Structure formats: structure tokens, C-alpha cells
Amino acid sequence: MTNHSKNRLKDSASPYLRSAAHQPVDWHEWGEDAFQKARAESKPILLDIGAVWCHWCHVIDRESYENPEIAALINKFYIPVKVDRDERPDVDSRYQSAVSAISGQGGWPLTAFLTPDGKPFFGGTYFPPDDAMGRPGFRRILLSIAEAFKSRRAEVDSSAEALEDAVAKAEIFHGARGIVDSGLVDSILDSAEQLFDRTHGGFGQAPKFPHSSVIDLMLEREKWPGGASLQGVVEKTLSGMAAGGFHDQIGGGFHRYSVDERWCVPHFEKMSYDNSELLKNYLHGYQALGLARYREVAEGTISWVNEVLSDQTRSGFCASQDADQTLDDDGDYFTWTLEEVRAVLSPEEARAIEIYYDVKPHGEMHHNPEKNVLWIAASTEMVARDLKLSDDDVKLLLARAKGKMLEARRLRRPTPAIDETIYVGWNAMFVSAYLEAWRVLGREDCRAFALRTLDRILVEAWDKSKGFLHRVGGPRLEGSLDDQVFAAAALLDAYEATLDRGYFEVAERAMRIAVERFGDAEGGGFFDRAKDAAPMGGLEVRRKPLQDSPTPGANSIAAIVLDRLYAFTGERLYRDWAEKTLEAFAGRVPQYGLFAATFGLAALLHARGVLQVVILGTEGDPQAAELEKAANGIYRFGKAVLRVTPEKIAAASLAPALRETLPHLDATKAQALVCVETTCYPPITDRSKLTSLLAEVATGAAGAVAK
């Protein structure tokens, strides 16, 4: 048996691939070398796609890929290739589509069998080493597939060709063009409402994932006539997620999903892209509904990110935090036995925690029945009655107890691994979220860290001719559409926060590159890979990402950014491309339901125009500060709030459309100018009148779209 795997993977930039360097499987990284070897030896390719945070990826590693007998079968009959889905989302997305078409199920680990040219003909997700849990054993599959490839090669090749054609047709959205109207938004919301869990909040049954774009869409839509019921859906969902074990009650932040419908027991890994979008949800929920609990959740998420999921020295947001330390535990870092709680707290503190978080001798974890997932099972008033204390005393007691438990968790338990990779798209999403936290919560530290992170990305991962790379550091990795559009969105957010014209100019350049390199001038929309990108190898199908899974659909984000640029420049290129992009998918959107919620947000923004609120006044003017605070206090998707001083106007920092409007006003006078597209309202100097106007504009414009 060959044993080149350690030499081949040990220096990989991917922590997931490096974790497999010791395995006896003769792994290759994705690339032409593997395809050439497969063709030369006439062997099928065994493709494993996973991630460092993926629990079942580690399970199949231990059970099968670290098993010498199974490794010998793989090395004898296959060319094995291992891929990190975070590093190569382009590879992952295509083979996910193919395996879902074969088995009806996707996810990680993705296990696919390919022809020597990389075309899939069989696959699934996790396979046990031997028949178990209703799944065929991996040993048996390896032998059966090898025999089929050898004795029925023509049948295998024919099946692979047919599957490639099916994936290509599904991904390219042929015949999907349609008219963009309010009916599309209604279809998305109808899908979400039908799936709404009225008991626990959220959408669908177990396993239950967050759907962040749906929440923002509902908060926007509830302003329309007849949309008031959506507020209850949002409140039930945000409150349900915040109270469950899906939310890390001690450390802050959110796990990837809940394995039950109650948001109680999570899959414990924590992802950057989930937490950035959920942070926005709670900020927007706080703006729209005014519930202090949502502010607390947002603040807790920021605290966790600052401590765990970011590089506070160099700047940047890390990719993920693993679920556990070893395969023998399942979230042990995050869960508690009754004895563990009592060991770190006073009797009164322990009793309060036991009641509040339902900590009992037997908890929710199957692998260790004594382990409890912390979820809010009682109100502070109930705890107060039991302990015969005031509600305020109980809140202080719980806060002190949680602080002790967090400190004990940090010091006495090995922390699950952090993937410190700085992916551009995911970092851009967090830059936008942190700038939103600055606006809503007044967190200057969030603003500063977001801008430092964006500056680092511009230095280390921006190419003036090709756009953004996929990650900061490591071997050059070409950026995807996600990297371009999320970064462009973050740049516009940074421009609105600073009026630094440099951010605006790079945002424009990034989107022009996206149009040139990723855009489909004939069919509309954008491909996920650039037209001039090096061959991917394998399943070379063109793909236009629409679905919100697991991140907001990149084509919808592209349309949003283009409309924002149009509002700043009046440049028809941006408006036309936004319209072409939305129309390219409109005929298929109802089939995606709540998974097209970002499309719904893009369609609304395109129809009613970007709302811009310009606050004028000298630096430090208290009246201008009050107007800015009022403007930031209102939730409105796509709203831009710009603080313009006389110095900013003199420094030529204004985007073209602003340059045409603002010089006619007295920039030394504290006043607010509210504009939607080309319509501006008379300047306002009173905070309460500004709040009223923004509410009226939101309702009126939304109502106009609904008609």
C-alpha cells in the first residue's frame, strides 16, 4: 500500500486536509494531477468533501479512512481526492447538486464516485464502515462500485453523462426568466408562513436551521398593508432561537442548527456566516420591535466573536469553531452536568441556574445522559418566586453565576478548535454586521474592527484586474461570485459609515469586474465562477447561485449592491444589470420558497428604491447627532444613513448623485435630507418629525410596491 498521504496533505493551507495527513489513504488534493492519474490508471475517483467543523466528517475519517483495511481497498481501486468545502465552494456546490440528484440527500461528508474525468455516477453522505443504521457499509460500496466500473464501464459513463446534463440544466436556470412583481415576494412569504412553527418559532421541523433573510424580509413586509401578522412570526422565531440551546447561553453566539424542533439541542459547531447574519437579525429585531432581549443577544454575540472568532491583533474574522474536542464527546465543552454546575457556583447561584436553564440529574445528551444543554426554561419571575427574591436580585444572581460558569468553561475545559482561515466573503458579511452594530448600538469598537478588517482584505486579497481572492493568506485562491458581491456590499457599508471615497471606488470597481468576469450578458444574472477562471476540473457546469443555503444567494446580493450603486451614481448600467439579474430567476423563484428570501429583499429594494438619509451639520453638533441616532433607530432594509459635514463636502468625498444634491444645502446647519431614488423630501431639523417621516416613507413606499 502506498503511503504518500502525509507528504501530500501535511502542508495544505486547509486545516481539514491537514487533519488527514496521517491517514493511510493515498489522498490527493483537488486538481489536474489527480485526474491525470485516474485516466492513466483507468480508475474511478473517490471524492470526499468535508470541513474541519463537521462532526460526521471526523466520524467517517476515524471509522473508515483511518482503517488500514478500508484504506487498502481505496488505494487499490480508486484515486482518492479530499476537498475542503469552505476552501472550494465551487467544487462542493456542483457535487452537492449531483449527489442530491442521485440520493435525494446532500450534506457533509459528501462521498462521491467519479469517472476519471471527474463526472459523478454514484454518491451519498456518511457511510458506516459496515452495514448499519439502514445505510450500506462503506466496504461493500467500495467493492461494488469498483466491480461496476470494471465490468459495466459503458453503463457507468452513460449514467455520468446523463447526470452531468441534468445538473447543468438545473444550475443554469434555462427558461426561468419572468416578471418581477409583488406576487413573487408574496409567494416567498406564503412558503415561510406555511412552514412556520407556531409553537417554537422558526420554519419547518427537525432539524431546524435559521433562515436569516426570511426574518429580515418579514420585518420589511410587515410595514405593508395587511402585513402586521408577520411581526408575530418574527418575534416568536427570534425569541425561540434566543431561548434555546441553539443559542450559547453562557458564551454567546449561535450553533449551526438545532437537531430538534424546540431549538433545544444543537449541532454544536459555530459558523461565521450564521453568526454574522443572526447578529443582523437581532439588531434589526431590536430596531423594529424594541425588545431589550434582542439587544442583549446581539451584544452577547459580539462578545463571543471578539473573544473567540476573530483575530483582534491583525484583524479579521475566523471561519468556524468546532463542535467538540474528540469523537467521544458531543458538545461537552458547551454542556453541563448538575455536579459541574454546583462545583463552580454557590448553592443559591446553582439553584437559580438549575431552575432557569432546566439543569437536572439527567439531561438531553444521548452520549452522556448526565449532560444538560442550557436553555431558558423559566422566567426570572419564576426563579424569584422559588428563591423568594426580587426580580432584579435574580437577574444579578444569574449574571454572576453565568460569569463564573463562563470562566470555568474557559479555564477548565479544552476549547474546541478554531479554524482561523480568513475567507473574504464571510469576513465581508461580518464587516457589514459589525458596521450595523455600530449604527444600532453605538458600538465604536465594532466600527473600528470592521474597518480594520476591510482594510486588511484590500491589502492582502484585492486584485485590481480580477477582483477579490477567496481568502487572505496561503496559496492564491481565485475568488467566487460570493467574494465579489459580499465584499462590494461591505465596501458600500464602509463608505456610508465613513464617506471615505476610496471604499466607494473599490466597490464600483469590484462590481464592474463582476459584470465583466462573472456576468451573463445574454441570459442575465451572474455565474459563480469567472468566465476566464482556470478550469475547475471535473463537473465543469456553469452555475448561477440563487438559493439561500447556507449563505444568502449571491445573485440576489449582486442585485442589491447594483441598486445601491445606482442610487449613489445614477449610472444606468447598475440599474439595468440589477433588473436583468432579477428577471433571470423570476420564473423559478416560487419553487424555492423561503430559500429565495434574499431575492425577495432584492426585488423590494429594486421596486421601491434605496432610502437615503443624509444628516448635515458641523462635527460634534448635538442636534445633528440626535438626527443621526433617530435615522439609525428605524429598521428599513437597504437604508443608507450618511453623516455629512462641511469638511466632507470640501474633501470631494461624495458619490456622484450626492454631489449634485448636497452643495445646494447649508452643510453647517443640522438637518436631515430624506431621499428615495430621485425624490427628496424637504429638509427636517426635528428628531421626532424625522422619525415620523421615515415611518411614513417606509409604509408608503411599501404600499406602493404592493399595488
Task: Walk me through the structure.
The protein is of the alpha+beta class. It contains 29 helices and 18 strands. The strands form six sheets. Strands 1-3-2-4-5 form a five-stranded mixed beta sheet, with helices on both faces. The protein has a four-stranded mixed beta sheet with strand order 16-15-17-18. A three-stranded antiparallel beta sheet has the order 8-9-10. Helix 10 packs parallel to helix 25. The longest helix has 22 residues. The N terminus and C terminus are likely disordered.
Notable traits:
707 residues; alpha+beta; 4-stranded mixed sheet; 52% helix; globular; disordered N terminus; disordered C terminus
| Estimated helix fraction | 40-55%
Range of strand content: 5-15%
Number of helices: 29
The rough form would be described as globular
Separation of the first and last Cα atoms: 70 Å
Category by helix and strand content: alpha+beta
Widest sheet: strand order? 1-3-2-4-5
- Total number of beta strands: 18
Using only CA atoms, what is the Rg?
26 Å
* Mean residue pLDDT: 94
How would a crystallographer describe the biggest sheet? Answer: 5 strands, mixed
Which runs of at least 5 residues are low in confidence (pLDDT < 50)? 1-5, 701-707
